[in-house]
Amino acid sequence: xxxxxxxxxxxxxxxxxxxxxxxxxxxxxxxxxxxxxxxxxxxxxxxxxxxxxxxxxxxxxxxxxxxxxxxxxxxxxxxxxxxxxxxxxxxxxxxxxxxxxxxxxxxxxxxxxxxxxxxxxxxxxxxxxxxxxxxxxxxxxxxxxxxxxxxxxxxxxxxxxxxxxxxxxxxxxxxxxxxxxxxxxxxxxxxxxxxxxxxxxxxxxxxxxxxxxxxxxxxxxxxxxxxxxxxxxxxxxxxxxxxxxxxxxxxxxxxxxxxxxxxxxxxxxxxxxxxxxxxxxxxxxxxxxxxxxxxxxxxxxxxxxxxxxxxxxxxxxxxxxxxxxxxxxxxxxxxxxxxxxxxxxxxxxxxxxxxxxxxxxxxxxxxxxxxxxxxxxxxxxxxxxxxxxxxxxxxxxxxxxxxxxxxxxxxxxxxxxxxxxxxxxxxxxxxxxxxxxxxxxxxxxxxxxxxxxxxxxxxxxxxxxxxxxxxxxxxxxxxxxxxxxxxxxxxxxxxxxxxxxxxxxxxxxxxxxxxxxxxxxxxxxxxxxxxxxxxxxxxxxxxxxxxxxxxxxxxxxxxxxxxxxxxxxxxxxxxxxxxxxxxxxxxxxxxxxxxxxxxxxxxxxxxxxxxx
Length: 612
Known about the structure:
By secondary structure, this protein is of the alpha/beta class. Among the domains are: 25-117; 120-228, Rossmann fold; 287-407, Rossmann fold (3-Layer(aba) Sandwich). The strands form four sheets. It has a six-stranded parallel beta sheet with strand order 3-2-1-4-5-6, with helices on both faces. It has a six-stranded parallel beta sheet with strand order 9-8-7-10-11-12, with helices on both faces. A two-stranded antiparallel sheet has the order 13-16. The longest helix is centred in the N-terminal third of the chain and has 38 residues, at 25-62.
């Protein structure tokens, strides 16, 4: 953190997901005008026509020349023509207002026409000076939601999409985003989007290969340019490929100008779903919870794995295993595959399978939900079928079969619109939906907070901050004496940045002493403990890095810390620090294995099995 000897920033880069809490007023006005420009122009013309009609009638009546209905229509239409001969004499207020409104509407329409004709040129002019913007590659539902969130927060957005006829492009342009057409993995197009001056690149194209290429080319362009730090996130749909790349995520970005991360909406969605609709995992239960997962595709598989990991991490003992029944035409094969890839899974939960199609009569009967004694086996049901219509159909069948039990049935949809909105019309909000609940996957996962929050560096940064708070309380510090003692969500951006930078440097410390780390399914393993001599050396590395980072940012040595004047009393050699100051570096070093464990990694010595 950005405080004297707390969480110093590392030399290098960091992920920058920060989104402004509220857009400036001018941004709100711009967005409002963009959304309502056509109705506004039409309203101005309608008001000008009505006022012109009555104004003309009054004008000729005052002149002693009564006019007919059609005369008033003719003169009103003529008034809308800027080249028409102006009326002579005194003009009444109605006509004055009508003429002003007509002129304003005409200018507005002309400006819109010119802007439409020269839109490409206007975009080029805007791009020439654009800096610290967000580049989004791929304009499907995911790209649209992410772009909308950033625009609402007042960020400048450039979108690259291969479809020149994409109907979503107009909406984005109306919100003030710049839309470029072409292959997002084209280095020339990325250069045109000024990737070397951007804050972040988020690639959500439909193809994993394209997203990976975007990241690689963005990295090359940033390293060749003179811009600042670029944070890049690539969406990887394939869960196994995502897991493979995420394991190497922390090794890939130790470069001063580039930070690379990967995310998967199904993995992130499963975590969000369990947070919003958790199974009952209380340690004092007589039996372990039993959940049913209907449809075990990418979302269903992620839900199974996150449920088992969550159960294991809670330290449930006495041999209780979470029970999960998977309902899918290929459930048996999926179970075998999961056990092969995650050997630890069998220790955490008992996987039961039903090779059953949701369109079959046996599924509609729903007898599989009940035991021989007639009691319901399920504690909660998650319907994760990818097709929304089939998912809703399956959820309704299960709901009818269990209506009297009030069994929670959570159905995954993409958005909280369409079928999901139709479902809620059955009553007043959630109460009218009975035991059915909708989880809108894309709306929950396609936000800046969600996509960045699943990054390894973000998880590590939060863990580092949590550890810092515990140690600060132990030292007797308070929020009044230490400005860094705040919850993560309330932490200033620069202090979040320091935690991310510290997370970045973990790999270098471990490499120095011959350690490696990899993602692991060994959820119940105790984290490794470093020998004290290694703790001391790593803490010294941390201090050296801290001093180097502060000096590069313009801080100077002084007797009393002053954040405004950038003065710190700890910019001194390690040997001259007090024991208390040294402990501020030793404490987080000792916790590195715990930090990595929270992100799903295990540390091991070179030559030893990783446990992955």
